[in-house]
## 1
Amino acid sequence: MRIQHFLFTAALALFTVTAHAQLDVVRFNIEDGISDATLKAEIEKSASTLLSALNSTVIAGKSKVKLEKEGELMFTKDGRKCLDDMWATSAMMCPVSQVTEKGISMQNGVVQVRNIPITMLAADDDNCEQELVLCFNQKGQIDNIMVALDEHRYLDVINAQISVKDFHRRQAIIDFVENFRTAYNRKDIDYINNVFSDNALIITGKVVKIDKKRQDLTAQSLNTEQIQYQKSTKEEYINNLKKCFKNNSYINLIFDEIEVMRHPKRDDIFGVTLKQHWNSSNYSDVGYLFLMINFEDEMNPSIQVRTWQPDKYNGKPLPREEVFSLDMFSI
Amino acid sequence: MDSQAFETMIKELRYIFSLLLLVLTPVVWSQDGIEIKTPERIARMVESMPMDNVPLAGQFQCTALSSTIMFYTEAKDGVTVQLGAKLFSQSMRQSYDPVIMSFVERLWVELLLRKTTASQASLLKEYGVRIVLSGYPLGSGSFKQLSQALDVINSLSSVSITTGGNEIDLFMRDTAGTTLHIYIPASRDLLFPYDKKEHEERLILELTKTDAKYRQTLPETTDFRNTANGLLAVGGDHYMIDSLSNDVFYDKNRVILYNADYPEETMRNILMGAAKPDRLAGLFLDVTPHTYNRNIGKFRIPLTSLMGYIQQQGFSLYTGDLGRNGNRCQCLLIMYHPIYNYLHMLSVSFISGQLDSGSEETIKADLSTFIPQHNIKNLFQEK
């Protein structure tokens, strides 16, 4: 009802203002960051199509964003699902006719564009003005859409959609993670051994200095460190941990900034990303811990993936998009 | 000793041993996988004290640490559960929050055990605690030594504690107007001497022993609103999501609801403490604890005793409907502690007829305890 009211008001407002021009059309330009002209053009086309489609859907008061066949090709399957899921949470529109932003090159050729102004029509007045983040694949197709707002505000928008059952399950994950932390502080190797799946994937990142002789001049001036990743088996990890427990009379792990994500297709698989502060008699560090937890057996959840990455390298915080998360692992 | 006498003695020993087993076995079972020991962090502190014979409980001096401060230990269930510096009077500890005041006194000992201000500042950083004297954190500006903070504590003119967020602010001002803030993360794990396992075990033991009484507690406001299924509700505060609320349900005549035709709403009223206790006399909970210690078994408790215990603990209560599983209704009770920032979750599964059968009924329940809330950035992260 509330959405309908907003849709009507927004549509009316748009019609009033756009009496002489097609203000549902949004032009999107990349001003910097993408050197590949073809990719840049594709991204501009995809983003313009998306933002214009949002506006025209609001004006038409439709319940779902529909695109022409050519427009559909500008989305990957995941990107299209993201759009539909977000629209189900709230209708949205772009309040400006021209957006110019820089492109940010990510891993594996992915490009991200941030700061796209958006109005979430289902949100209250304090929360309706938001910013969209779009992720494009190497072909310039939209692969992911996110709202770049702080989590509490985003919750205000979406919390009406969350069931008690989902809340219950996610709190059980927090409980499990707290038990896991407690096991390290208690140096309870049996507990830790039990919660890791026998074929768990364990990846540990380590900051190493770059051999400058092997670098070109540009790279030399920018970075002096990189993260190297080492894979280990459960047995290797547990054995190392036993030594660590033996060498430290005191261990105090602190977990912070916990984020819980459910697998899009498996209700019993969850990803947890958190900031780990490791304090012990001989050593301390801070890093990002990612755990992929299988909750199929609720009484005995198991960790299938554990990764650790340092929180900083090259004197800068580890970029958020480089922190391991659930969508980086296939199941 | 001849062989016959030896055999008789063996038989007698076997008899005594069997008797001992019989006597001891129920004790072991009644403990149900729980062994109460001194909390590990307290044991570590006691071990680090530069003196022998730290008493199980009582006041003592430790001149190697401080010539002016008295120290104390406290015991519960026969084991030491607190070691602190006596900074505050007993009446002050009780008037303010004893958990927070005890934490500060325990922290003081840990700081005194560190030799240098830099090392003390490092411990504070690890704990996320800030001690700020006249605007300066320990080790900076004019705040060079911990003893300067003690001067304020020893001549207090005013004290206040601000709680309710992710940080607790213990504010003190001395008679000369010097201010001292101690900012403490609102984390159960930091504030209590127990880790999660130790705290859970103590809670389960208390629950199995409690005979607390259920008190009917109705909302103060009568700001009724209509629900989708034709009832009236009062409350409207939520915990994280809209569908978890402190709602209490009434029928159309504004009489508190207890009606098996509305099993979820009736159960939510029971869990909110809003039902009349005499309606609950035959209801028992068969509780499965989901705890760190997996050896803790199920326990059975009168619903009124469990709820009575919960009502004494200062929780904010919220309930929700977990949906039906066949003919079984499922409800969730969230017991959130607004100061120490943790929650317990109790889910119950029952058949509507159990609510008004008139005979003894056992309801299945699952209990998860001491789930931290202070360190959650996003519980509902999406891609």
## 2
Amino acid sequence: MSVSGYLTRQPVRIVGLIAVIAAAGVVVVWQDLGLARLLTLGYLDRSLRAATPIALVAIGGLFAEKSGVFNIGVEGFMIFGAVNGLAAASLVSGNGPVTQFDLWIGLFVAVLISALLTTLFAVLMIRYEADQIVAGLAVWFIGLGFGPFTAILIWGSRNSGTVGRIGSLDLPVLSGIPVLGPVLFGASPFILLTIAITIGAWVFLYRTRYGYWLQAAGENPEALDTAGIDVNRVRYAAVIFSGTMAGLAGAVLTLGVTGNFIGSGMTVVDGRGWIGIVAYLFGNYNPIGAFLAALLFGAMDMLQIQFQTIGVPLPSSLVDLFPYVVVIVVLTFYGSTRMPSRVGEPYESEE
Amino acid sequence: MSDADSGRARDALDGAADRLLGATPVERVALALASTVTALLIGLVVVTAAGYDPLMFVNDMLYGAFGTERRLTITLRETSYFILAGVAVAVAFRTGVFNIGVQGQFIVGMLATTMTILWLTPFLPANRLGGVGLLLVGTLGGVAAGGAYGALPGVLKAYADANEIITTIMLNFIAIGVVFFLVDGPFRGEGESATRTASIPEYAELPPVLLDGSDFSILGLVATVGIAVLIYVLLTRTRAGYDMVTSGHQESAAIYSGVDAKRTIVRTMTISGMVAGVLGALFIVMHANAMPNANGINTYGFDAIAVSLLAANHPLGVIPAGALFGGLDAGGQYINVASDVPPQLIDGIVGLVVLFVAAPELFRMAAKRTGLGGDRR
Amino acid sequence: MSRKGSRTVVSLDGITKRFGDIVANDEVDFTLEAGTVHALLGENGSGKTTLMSVLYGLYDQDDGRIVVEGEGREFTSPRDAIDAGIGMIHQHFQLVEPMTVLQNVVLGQEPVDRGLVDEEGARAEIEALCDRYEFDVDQYLDTPVRDLDIGVKQRVEIVKSLYRGAEILVFDEPTAVLTPQEVEGLFDLMDELTKQGRSIVFITHKLDEAMEIADEITVLRDGEAVDTVDGDGTSKEELARMMVGREVLFDRQARDRTTGERIFEVEGLHVRGDRGLEQVTDVDAWAREGEILGIAGVQGNGQSELVQALTGLRPVESGRIRFAGDDITETSRRDRIERGIVYVPEDRQREGLVLEYDLVRNALLGNQTVAPFVDGWFVDWAAVRDHARDIVEEYDVEPPEPTARSASLSGGNQQKFVVGREINHAPQVLVASHPTRGVDIGSVEFIHNRLLELRSNGVAIVFVSSKLEEIQKLSDRIAVLYEGRVVDTVDPDDVTDQELGLLMTGNTLDGSDESLERRSDVRGDT
């Protein structure tokens, strides 16, 4: 689709986007923020790190919704991933210290368990045609219950305390590349992983036959059916992928970003699953768009730290709220404009 | 597994799903009780496995909930909160709107009540009568604020199709952040070193009346039960309530019958927010007496979702459900202090109860609301 | 022209297909000769789409054989039919709107090169195909389908089938969404296709088109094949008679001339449908007190949208709706209910009833502002319960227990309850959309009698039905709707079945050969 075609079709979004950028511009000038001081490499690095879990859950979620199933339970799946990753790592390390190897094992175990759990969920959604909103809420509640409970079983408390964090890469030649080198190749390996998954997802969706089928399943499942492809099989795959990605996102959060699990309140996941949903909506159901939107939210998340670093006197408790406000704005103005047409409707082949 | 076997397994699964679907109210109460008991039993198993004496645990829990007059008042106090919050959630869920934002609406109402009373204090006589005035106006303020904060996501959903689950979750965060900022800054009480407003005058607090205990007034419980009954009457006996509940079941039929769907959504969220506002007011005049740090307030609004689900979103059912949570909470507080069972374990058990109660009800709701051409989105 | 082919490419022998109690196809025989266009003509519900769906593998037949190119075949899915060289161009395009033409054409059959879709290869193939048949589709290969004209979209559908090597093409009501020029273009295309050896089945309810393009015409009626005639050797009257003609099974009662006031009228009404296209165009109609206005027409010609506009469930683009002299065009649904305009809805399970509710709670639906049931803020449930009981008794609803959950009632009983509830509203105007759909014969009679009773009590009734005999039996006047316009409003005593059939296909009764002119800016263009 051409850029000009896109622009002429989406006047409201373009206006909205320009308004947001203009507002941001006003704030920058008013507070004498000095973009050069604000947009540092360190800020980019922190934003990318913060963005990785959001981007991962967003890409998974968008695959599911594109295929016609709204997986609103991704927050719950993230919680499972978050706790299972660290729990597995702790268990594997036994009484000794937690090694990098243990942490990576934890990651794989978390992803595996997420895949299994999502399969059950997919059956409920597709075969039993459960109401997608309520079933998703159920998963969230289950996560909110099991997360801290698992934590108590493993660490004796809802909060795990510091367990360990997967360390930075330091790829010899690549990390020497000016500007982006240290960020992409010298820091958290998950940044690279996320970018790779984003590109892979984009290629899959727009360049492979399975991607075609996925898009058709959410827009016009009859067309796919009459073309001879099993619609529900496509949807199963998409939903399982979304839950697995959410689990990966949660594991990346605890194993790669925080190094610990918090089970109290909204848990360490703290709404990132919900933000991920809005991210892919904002990103127009496109993996690259979702990644960029996640980056934006990551940047918002880290804004408060950045402001502190460069000495901007805005109150931190308010700056912290930027991501949430942006979410509401996005939902209000961008909300359902580009949803796949047949989301939420179970599909039954005739006969 | 052969085809026949997998076919049979599938049939069994289908049969179970059907049973869950078609359960009568009596069966559902039984299911809720069974879930709760199961969760508690599992909790006991964990307690035992962790090396503590289960019988002592149960004993301590019961004592903690009912043992002395003081403990009873704590139970009743917590129960009041759970009931009110549960009613706020129930009214929304019943009518098809998923208000996850009761916590935010409650906190906003709480602040509004506090500030209204504080601002009005100089204008009213400093006696019981003035106190009653302050109390009433303060509550009105809380109700208005809670209602407005609830109406906002309602409007966004009705007119911009913004998913209310996500907007209310975000608004929770925003409420806590903004209220904290205000209380930490401009609204901070004079001379307060902690993040706290000034205290409301004593004569504006709700008096203990019958039981003498810790920050509890039987009037509060009465008011709570009264509101639950009021909402029940609203939903089952008024025309507005019929319109709301019908919208929740099948919006197309509601529209056919003349209901303005958009206005109904806003009305529902507003009422839900208003009840949350009452909770905020009650919390202040009965208990806290000043607006504390918003981050530290108990998550009644959130736990209330489980309360409501345990009650199958029935406003009267919320009363016993709230009592259960109130008892668990009070018992848990006692165990925290009096025994060496770690508080996390108790929280975990409560979490388990939430899980065992919420999940089946949610799955039942999910299974029920299918088909009908994607009425809900 | 007639091009009798030398061999039979498709033969359907004695196809029978049932859906529950309904027999959609009753031992239908159909043959298609090579290189010809064979039209399958019939009213809505006559079984034509079902027959072709069986051929295309969407349905399994209960009885009968499918023979393609001399071989007996069993199609379990469209894939099998596609493999056998059968392609279907559906009435509702099977296109994925946001995807490009190229992507849509290859969907399900994408050429793959090292894991990715081989776009270049596909492009070359499609362009070759387009050249061969002089399609213009290849210039749109990278355009998302949603940006395309309806005519182009249809050609994409055709290319889809050709790309899969279809020798036999089935067109399901292809001209429904086309302008007259586009229809000519389509017919030229069909000529080209048959010249190059393809065989075509053309499903339609439009007589003139069938006569224009088809070599052979098979008429279906009520699931049965009436006859197969030569495309050249027949006439419109003959076809209409075959399509619609039936024994007179009913008694049309003698009735008094209605002398009441015009109480319900619409003027110059324009209404848009769900997809933004205009579905009701410049409609004038009225009903008097004590009169039944029947709205006839093949389903999908704007009746639903018209009824929704009348009852306040859909906004009006332009035009006026008047009730008892008041302009009610902008009034809400509830306001209209309160004025006494009730509605028996088309979809009782979505609109007429809340399935989760028992009959008592459903009795209140629509009655929320009606006196004995609602007093101020409160509902008098005792009164509602009595009302429900009354309805159940009067309308013979089974089971006679008002506390039964509505979902457990049969379709017919649900409908009886809804009809009863609306009639018991003591309305001034009753709008009914397919009120006897899915209802057993005895109850149909009962409902008809109640409607006639209402009529003699001075109620104005507007009712839509696809059952021609029902319309003829009950109506004082019949307005025939075609493509959103009123073709004509006639007195049922003055028209024959054939004439009604002609009207329903858009032909006026003055004998002219032209179909009604369709304004191109209204239909079809995006």
## 3
Amino acid sequence: MKNHPISRRAFLKATGLTIAVSVTPFGYELLNASERKAEALSGFKPNIWFEITPDNKVTITVASVEMGQGIHTALPMIIADELEADWKQIKVRQGPAGAEYKNPVLDDQLTVASASVRGYYGPLRKAGAAGRAMLIRAAAETWKVPEEDCKAEKGTIQHKKSARKLTYGQLCLKAAKLELPKDTPLKKESEFRYVGKPMPRLDIPKKVSGAAMFGLDISLPDMQLAVFARPPAYGAKPISYDQKAAEGVKGVSKVIPTPQGIAVCAASLDSALKGRDALNVKWDKGTHPQLDNDFIEKSLIGDLEKPGATVIKTGDVKKALGEAGKKVEATYFVPYVAHATMEPMNCTAHVRNDRCDVWAPTQGPLVAKFVASQVAGLPPEKVHVQTTYLGCGLGRRARPDFIVDAVSVSKVVGKPVKVVWTREEDIKYDAFRAAMSHRIEAGLDSQGRLIGWSHKVVSPSIMKDIAPQAVVGGVDFMSLWGLADFPDSPHANRIMYEIPNFYLEFLLSDLPIPVAPWRAVQNGPNAFVIESFIDELAHAAGKDPLEFRLQHLKSNMRAYRVLETAAKKAGWGKPVPKGQGRGIAYHSCFGSYVAQIVDLSVNEKNGAVKIHRVVAAVDCGPVINPDTIKAQIEGGITIALSSALKEEVKFSNGGVKSANFDDYNVIRMSEVPEIEVHIVESKEKMGGIGEPGVPPTAPGVGNAIFNATGARIRRIPFTPERVLAAIKNK
Amino acid sequence: MISLNVNGKNYRVNVSDDVPLLWVIRDYLKLTGTKFGCGIGECGACTVHIDGKAERSCAIPVKEAQGRKIITIEGLPENHPVKRAWIEEQVVQCGYCQPGVIMQVSALLSKSPKPDADKIINAMDNVICRCGTHARIRRGIKTAVQIARKEGRV
């Protein structure tokens, strides 16, 4: 790999995400009792992660945000286990924005990159174990017996010899006065009480009763509601608007022009929406009036002819391709895809002279704090961010645009303001999963082994918006995730196939459409390309697609095992029912390995694809909550099917044409197949689980379509029209 | 003034006739379990029961809901088979769409206590979940049917 001049730490610094607060990279370090004497003791709080109170409750603070991935259960399981707490006494609190809550893997308090469990696992175990040791000592001192004779069990300390027992609630005030132990031994894995077991999620009862608070559910006394009129085309500016008419609408209090659009503030949402209609804004044509889907596709495919920056150069690809017995070449394309989280973007803020409060469904509380501090013109320590439940995140909610909206309006009106994005705004002003074009040329030797792979990628930059400094030498590694990763990256989002001669080139597209991470980031689109092309190569080599993969993953045990497991469970190699096709795909990202096998039928008359079953095998290393792992892989597969079969953002006249769920189609119940998830037992390094289910699905479907029809489709979504055309042209 | 009967309680709300029922339920009655997803009746997050039928509250002007019996997620009893099945099967992920999904399922089951696959798809194709809980929703429906039958609710 080319020696890239930016290290991970430099990259993180460059992102600017951490400059809002004084950085304590090991914020999870245990605080000594003496260091926190100033705080009134209401219970036993040996660190920032939990507090035991005399009412015998253990309140656990979770730094990550809950967006459906079950983190408000998984992280408490880790603490409760080492602490030897009773699961019934656990309460969960969402941690506020704070540098002390940073995830060590990310060096930030972001819930992204499937990093929560693998980041906090070690620190939380230590925190729980230290608490357990102190409770044991508190009991031993109370009874005047040796600590070795005392044992922690389900929220109590027991002295077996004298059959005495004290609860954590009874011991907490005494434990609070003790010095923190230096190094407490952790439990053996065989002693785990909760870790590794399918614990019921703690947030589900609230979500079933309707009581769970999402961002849109925030309500404050004297709160104003605000909506924005936003430009219909990229770069468009307002020519005129009728402020008086809007202010004349009953309930409307103020019209506020801002760089992102014209805000209408009112006592209720219906008034704000009526006020926005009355504005009757006329916009200019913006910067790219000719932009539509054709323009985008031509631009990205056309740019494949321009020279890019070299990212990886291993061996001599030119020579290898010159000597190859067989060469395969292909061009792939992936369109823009919207996040369309079920809860549209929203934020509530209250800016006063000396304080700013923000309530937000955000994946980046510290980003929110930094941005709010900039907009409010207050130092970060005067900004308080409280995160609500997120109605899905998908990467969209790491972007702070909705926070800017609420803080800027509240700053003007001086009251609490909730900004609500309608679904139309949520789709039109999304930062999409980036469209990309790929061209690959690869060569096989006479035995059908892969000897050379030359790959060019054209994509808009994801990092450009987040941290332009991180795009160095024209290379955006986030756009390349799945093919290549930042040097020293903890995510290992690289191509894993063993290819002796490999060349990767990247060119930044200058399309004006904002892009952002979307569940699995570009691992999704890039795996679609890699795994479809590997399938093409297997067929060119005359080999079984599973065998061909295994042949090029010989030193990768984890990849090997998930492929073999999925194949066995799905009956790979056994005949497929008549009229059906079966496809296989594999990808590893964020430290986890996933293989999937897709069974489907294609209606050759109308091109409709019906997915029957997806079988997945996953190796994510040590397991915390197996049921959550299954749920995350099921969810990953389902949303990946949605993007593989249906999703593509439509553009016209220089802006986004798609607007709502009637013209931006997502997967529905009748299209979701049976999904089987098999967890491969593994003692390897822990990986993430929120995203790795996504990448193998689209290529699995494409490969199954090829298996069923003989038609290779190098572009998603696999709409009936596209499938039909591919069958006709094969 | 609009009069509404929600979860067995009578309310009088000073709001214009054309405001969608959803916003009245959420912002005026402060029953925030019913969610806003699309505003055009496409996604089902706002589903409530009106006179026993699953309806999209975002697409119904509040005036049309006057004099009718409205039930929201908060009004569905905690021991309702669907709510219990949702916990038992761990259906929920982010949970934002689930109040609407639960209202859709409970209306379906009150009409057809043992729905076949077609009936389930007919009802459930009208709601959107972005986390991908569909496979578990199907399991949840099966379990809810069993719970209801065991308890002689059918």
